[in-house]
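B., you asked whether I could sanity-check this one before it goes into the benchmark set. Here's the sequence:
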Amino acid sequence: MTDVVVVESPAKAKTINKYLGDRYTVLASFGHVRDLPPKDGSVRPEQDFAMDWAADDRGSKQVAAIIRALKGAKTLYLATDPDREGEAISWHVRAMLDEKHALKGVDVRRITFNEITRTAIRAAIAAPRDLDQPLIEAYLARRALDYLVGFTLSPVLWRKLPGSRSAGRVQSVALRLICEREAEIEAFRAREYWAIEAQFTTPAGAPFTARLTHLDGRRLDQFDLNNAALAEAARARVAAGDYTVGSVERKRVRRNPPAPFTTSTLQQESSRKLGFGAQQTMRLAQQLYEGIELDGETVGLITYMRTDGVQMAREAVVAIRDHVKTAYGPDYLPATPREYSSKAKNAQEAHEAVRPTDIALTPERVGRFLNPDQRRLYELVWKRAVASQMQSAELDQVSVDVVSGNIRLRATGSIVAFDGFLKLYREDLDDPAEDEDSRMLPPMAERDPLTRGEVTATQHFTQPPPRYSEASLVKKMEELGIGRPSTYASILSVLQDRNYVRLEKRRFIPEDRGRLVTAFLTSFFERYVDTGFTASLEEQLDEISDGRADWRAVMRAFWEDFSRAIEQTRDLKITDVINALDQDLGPHFFPAKADGSDPRACPACGNGRLGLKLGRYGSFIGCSNYPACQYTRRLAIDTGEGEGETLKEGMRLLGQHPETGEDVTVRRGPYGLYVQLGEGGEKQKPRRTSLPRGVDGDTLALEQALRLLELPRIVGIHPETGEPIEAGIGRFGPYVRMGTVYGSLDRDDDILSLGMNRAMELLAKKLAGVRVLGAHPKDGESVAVKRGRFGPYVQHGSLIANVPRGTAMEDVTLEDAVALLA
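And here's what the prediction gave me:
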């Protein structure tokens, strides 16, 4: 008789089973076992927000496995992740087991652990608790909110703004931040200013540089020298003076180490230092949390990675302090442990910081067991945690005034007097302060004569605010109180998947589709994309999870106002939408021309006015004299090139096929851009191919489109198997294929120029998880065993059979496979 433990992932199940032994059966739920069906009516406000839940095939299968394991068991331990989502998964599992009457005589207990180590797992088993009902209710409220906003607001978008995708509660606010920043950049007007710098040499012959700060006894403001003439006059006056040291100021400053990582700071620093996106960071952190094989045992390397907390367990702090004293010496150890406080509004959801489970597992020791990306992220987490308990750095800052009459220049610099935590960790490689730390000034004393060298005047221009990177957007959302740690990565991913924004040089640029959606929502649903309102709603959700608010009362207050706002758009005319969008986005699509002419003047008829239009496939720019003037232009800023190119509601003509004479067009469909040959017939669809990621539909040339329409293409013949290798674009993007083995192309691969070497390299990764067993006795076709997402399986043609749990891929024989397939 064994008790049953349910966790989320199979990797975690395998590790925990080793820790607990034969008295326990550990199974995985594979995440959520059920969800709200994606259709109207799954949440019913009129019935006080009653919800319908439905399990998919995978969820039903996992619950059935749990039911089988529970026969004869006394206790069911629900051990899903220690956060709101994990609590919800446990609640769903218990509810489904209740519905199946599978819990008779079974004690259901909830356990959580912040790290996957033998000690933590056994401690959790020894201290079970009940399910946290307020946390579950916070999940129900959040899920209902997101469902109702999505399923109520998205249809309004589709009806009133053709070509748009869907709208999400938090994603729409994040999109607004990106679009508003872009509008700031477009409205920005650079201002000119000049800086005067002079080279000096001390009596000992040491050089340094100083910048002009005062002229005629008056401090210069940034724009006092705003043209070449003023700058040259100031430069000449500086060059004519004789200089001495006016004053030398020295002060020592302390720089404290940063706190250990929370989810958001981990994502920010990983983006800045490692170039990892939020999704990639969380995926790698999940792998480090679930553990690696180390000396014959699976060991979790870091604590749970979805957290608002910055505190660490007392045992961890003691171990880190011991390591600091041993590795760096007592000078690097503060007299008392450092304590950090969390800004999280809800203590229930503020878990321990992200830290190593065992400080003795240094990056050098475990690095060979990790892939390069895992190693880099683990090293970041390890160093940050250790540095957080190290002594402060001390810097000597020096400021020197150089004077000649009523002219004053200043030189600044600093030296590290004691490196402290900087010996191990610097928070941001791009921090300008880091440059200043390394800039040293030579020894000087007041009234020392100086030898002047070259004096230069350098022109500068003010810079617009930078576009958001993943790191800066996460930081901004956290500052505003929008979203929570577990949601940041998915928010950024959804915005890109819907083609509302694109990531270029690691910066977010809003697509025109995204700007239109934001303009629509701010015009007609301003409150629901307001950062203050969204943050206040997040605080109410936190109050629910803390047991201080009733979730249905929060939902009723929200729904009353939201449904009224939706109702007010029922009679909204398309012309109202166009006028609102045209007013909001006019400066973007029709920027002022250098010659002062009207940027909206129609180039075709001369007296019409260009404006935004909405068509069946989305938005475009057209003439007010339609239908007399049929000038149209794709939705883009007019650069003055290619005027007159026509667009038929989301379609651009590239040219004609050289053999058939059919039109080749690039079009926008519900799932993105694609090229199409001709118009097809009643019984035959036209040939179409999706545009790969990174290919711009506005600059796509006819030759490139023709090559895309020829896909899939044969790359070559595999030298060992003799099978053809094919490259094409499928439902999930560009791929290479050999028989039934598919390999996905990386972001940097070009489907049109991919060669045999690269194709075989991509397939080799997949073939490493494929073992051909031989020919099937009935038809001679090959039978193979493959490594799948949920374990190994055997395949014969299109027929697939799962390998029994516990059977290794290497142990499957042809006879076993034939029996399973039968």
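One thing to flag: The first strand starts at residue 3 and ends at 7. Otherwise nothing jumped out at me.
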